[in-house]
Structure formats: C-alpha cells, structure tokens
Amino acid sequence: MPKFAYTGRSAQGRVTGSLEAVSATAVADQLRSEGVTVLSVQAQEGGLVESLSLQQRLDALLKPAIQPVDMLVFTRQLHTLLKSGVPILRALAGLTESATNERMKETLQAVRASLESGIELSRCFAQHPKVFDHFFVAMVRVGEMTGRLDEVFLRLFEHQEFELFMGQQVKSALRYPLFVMAAMVAAIAVINVMVIPAFAGVFKSLGAELPLATRILIATSEFTIRYGWLLVGLAGAGAFALKRWIETEPGRLAWDRFKLRIPVAGKIVLKAELARFSRSLALALRSGVPVEQALTVVAQTCENRHVSGKIEGMRASIERGESLLRAAIATGVFTPVVLQMIAVGEETGAVDELMQEVAQLYGNDVQYELKTLGQQIEPILIVFLGVLVLILAMGVFLPIWDLGRVSFKR
C-alpha cells in the first residue's frame, strides 16, 4: 500500500507525518475525521526516490522553465472551460494532458492531486509559489469566495497579457542602447590595449614633451594593460556584491527607490507601476474585494518595493478611517491624474471603472515612452561617444601637430 506524507493544522497547531492509504483522498478523509485541517498530501516512494534523486535533479535542471506564455495559455483555457460548465477537476485533467511544457504538466498534476485530497484550489496554487504568485493566489481565493472563478481567471488572463506585453516592450527598448554601450566598451578596451601603446612608442622615441591629454591616455593605457585583470575581477566582484545586496530587504528597497530617480528611465518605471497598481486595483474591486484587502493584494503585484510599501501604508490609513484619496495623497508617489481619478471615483462610487481608465492611459503612455526610449537615450550616447572621440583625437593628434609645427619653423 502506498505511503503519503501530510501536513495539516489541528487545535494543538501544525502537524506533520505519514500514513499508508489507497489514495491521497483517503488520507485526507482520515485526517479530517480526526479533526485535522489538511494543508498538503504528497505520495512517498521510499528507497526508489532516494536512489533516483540525483537523476531526478539532473532531469529537473534540463527541463525548460515555465514561461509567461505557458501561464497565459493556462489561464485563458481554464477560464474557457469553467465558463462552459466543465468541473474544475476535469478541466485541470484536460489542461494537464494538453500542456507542452513538462514543468507545467507536473505542476498541474500536483495541483490536481492536492485538489482531489480536499484542499481548496487557492491553497493548491499556493503550494507552488514559483509558478503562481501571491496576486494569482489571492484572486483565485476571491473567486472561490464570490463563486465567480471563471470571471477571475479571465481578468487574470488580461492582467498577465498586460505584464507580458510590458516585459516585451522593455526588452525591445533596451536592446539598441545595450548593444551600443557594449560596442563602446569593446572599442575603449581595444584602443587602450592595442592602439594607444603603438602611438606611445612612437611619441617616446621622439623625446619631445607630450601634451597633458596624451600623457593621460598613455597612463590610462599602461594601467589597463598592467591591471586589466584586476579591474575585471573588481567589476565582477562588485556586480556580485551588488546583486547580493539587492536580494536583501533593505538593499531591494534602496535600489527600487533609486530606480525611480534615474533620468529618463525613472518616470517610465513609475508610470509602469501606476498602470500595474490601477489595473490590479480595478480587477480586485470588480471582483468584490473590500478596499482594505484589495490594497494588500495590489501591493503584492508591484515589482517596486518602495511603491509596494507605500500602498501597504494606504491600508493602515484607511483602517484608521481616512478616505482612499487622503491615503493616496499621503504616500507621495501618485501623480495628480491618479489622485483626481480616485477623487471622482469615490464621489461617484466607480473607483474600479476609473482605475481601469487610468491603467489604460498609463499603459499607452508607457508603451509610447518605451518605443521612444531609444530616441531619448541616443543623444546621450552620441554626446558620450563624441567626448570619447575628442579625447582620443586630442591625445593622438596634438603631439603630431606640435612636431609638425616645430619642423615647419625650422
């Protein structure tokens, strides 16, 4: 008889253990009869699991990750099936069979098994946080409470579609500037390592006093040749240290606050967060979520921790009796357009509709900003490249000009 490991919650607290049963459903039934609320039930395979653990890990590493498109297709198909009256277990079974991504298929199998054991659908999704984020789980929980799961999955599909589109626009906008910057770095490296040393040998053989710009170029080239490996190592160590610092809570908060102050890009980041906030708040309010709970759910969708913390603070203000408008003004992150829409929405009782309009407004604005990002950055790159060429020209040609002038006088 197979063995199942379980976790649950009883009157005494959290309980874990293992039981032998015919199926996971039987385990859940037995635990419920003992007054235990089941959280998860998973099959154990004894020594077979241990002997194959290394192979399973290698197979897991080789399997392609779940892509946003996979989640988009899953959410849309699940909405269609539920709207057509297909039971959730049958819908998950069909989606599992049709899934092309192995990781997605395994995840859906685990969700279906947990659902069969008597766990709520939102908790089944919550057991896979790397696939289903907090916002997804929270909205599914709302759909369970209101009985409108099909509508919730449709709105989740629209939300995921917007997020996917935003990601694609960002990658498209940054492709050209990053390519230009990489080419400039490569050009600087070649100039320092190959070009300047050749001219330096010629200038030293002449024995003349070199201009300041030329001496700076030669000193920079010699430093790069001697300590280039050290510079690369320090750059790698600095990038690694920065990454680890950003992974910490204070580091992530400081980094996200800094991103909002970056010229050109900062305003795009803020508008994207406001579009995400407005769309998520409209989605939550339309689904019947109270505004206090909606703000908690919306805060989890924001990628910027600084903005997310401000939204969390709005909930505390509303719980103290303040209006949504006053709470939003106190954060200091919302633009006058958003504040005006919130004010009108509170007066008319149509906050969700106006937030949807704000989301569309800023979504279109961000789309335009991203399309023109390359044009906005291009002048900065041209100026930087021009300064670089000017310094190089002065360092190389000034000594030649001086020597030519001296020879002409003679």
From TrEMBL:
GO terms for cellular component: plasma membrane. It is found in: Cell inner membrane. The chain crosses the membrane at residues 178-203, 223-242, 324-345, 380-401. One of its GO terms (biological process) is protein secretion by the type II secretion system. It is a multi-pass membrane protein. Pfam families: T2SSF (PF00482). Belongs to the GSP F family. This is Type II secretion system F family protein. The lineage of its organism: Bacteria, Pseudomonadati, Pseudomonadota, Betaproteobacteria, Burkholderiales.
